[in-house]
Design brief:
It is a single chain. By secondary structure, the chain is an alpha/beta fold. The protein has three domains: 199 residues, 3-Layer(aba) Sandwich (Rossmann fold), CATH 3.40.50.1010; 85 residues, Nucleotidyltransferase, domain 5 (2-Layer Sandwich), CATH 3.30.420.610; 80 residues, Nucleotidyltransferase, domain 5. Helix content is 37%, strand content 12%. The chain has a six-stranded parallel beta sheet with strand order 3-2-1-4-5-6, sandwiched between helices. The longest helix is centred in the N-terminal third of the chain and has 16 residues. It is elongated.
Length: 457
Amino acid sequence: MMNLPVLKEEQKMQEKLNIAVFVDYDNIEIGVKSTLRREFDVSLALDALKERGDIVAKFAYANWGRQEGATREMAENAVQMVQRIPSPRGDKNGADINLALDALEMAFTHSHVNAFAIISGDSDFIPLVNKLKEYGKTVFVVGGKAFTSTILQQNCHEFISYESLLMVSHDKVAIVGQNSPPLPTSLLGTGAPAMKEFRKDRQEFLPKEKRQRPAPLPLEQAMPLVERALQVLERRGVQPQLGLLKSTMLQLDSTFSERAFGVGSFSEFVDRMKKSELVNVSGHGGRVLIERKGLAQPDRPMPQPQEALPSLRDVLETHRLELEEGASADELSGWVAEEAPHLDWKQFGFQEFAHFLNYAQDKLIVRVEPDEERGLVVYLGAEFYPPAPPPAPPEPEVDEEVEEDEPQPFVEGQPTIFEPNPPQPPPKPVKKLRSPRPKKATGDSQTQRRPRRKKTD
């Protein structure tokens, strides 16, 4: 009899996903154009989502009056375009608010929709992602690793990087020969800039310096995640099959993608690990089991991304004046190569320097803004501008001595400011005069008054 945990895991895998897609077009379009020098192709994202379930609704939010080149592409892919007209005072987050409200309304009113896909790199959607997860919905996020917030990448169920989708489309373009008919616009994007960059030989979409693939990451960097996922499955008593292993790895790290390691499928990823003797693989067909190799722990643990930040801080501090006006990511990459040659961001799990900058932005070390002409423009982050200390409490004011009004003298019968007509004062009591006491006589003799002497001339 099959174990209960195994049954639950298989039921979870077999559950049908009905996906509602919400596209923040302004954000994804400027992000792809500034970081990858490509026109955003919504069909690439939709094809990737179709591999994960059925798409039952598709909405895109933008001011479509300014996106005439994209309206045809949206119509070809049956994407419902929601018009956003900014107010005269501007509403930068207007599309974000509309998208979030519509997604929550669908979560409440359409019970059959159990998965949502947000095509954007804006960190403002983190509350929406968390709320949808509270309601038991599966959440996918599609965006570029160079401009999608790492916090948003790590909090969804699965992050699908647009760079990995371009790798697949590039392989399809490379197969086409010189004598082949023109490629469909779904593979190359739409709009005049995209058609100008499409070369005559139909084998290169962009100039060579812009179309180079990032070097794949070494398989050893994926082993900590693989080991942890295998340990989780062992504790659950579940057989580590291909599908269960990948779903567990995505639960532990939603940013995992086998394409970052130079392979096109997870089965190929496991086959590479087997050839490198990193894991034991047994079985065949749909019953492939993966087991830990049981190798000793390496002497030196894998470097963590935060360990690369001190060297970047030193370079930023050196070029503080240049960064006040903003420097391109290419300029900053050149400064890092000259002044910190020991810093190799690939050792820390970043395929490209732009991915490293995106991580540093979430740590408030830099501030990155996409620009259609200059690409990624880098400024110093909030860490270099600490908040001013709180103002000292004001000293108590010393009040000047205020002369207090002395009570006015009261004169009887004279009006005052308090009593204009004061009552008449009571009459003074009459002092009684005492009668003189008689003198006592001494003996028989009486005192006689002596006559006054007359003055003589």
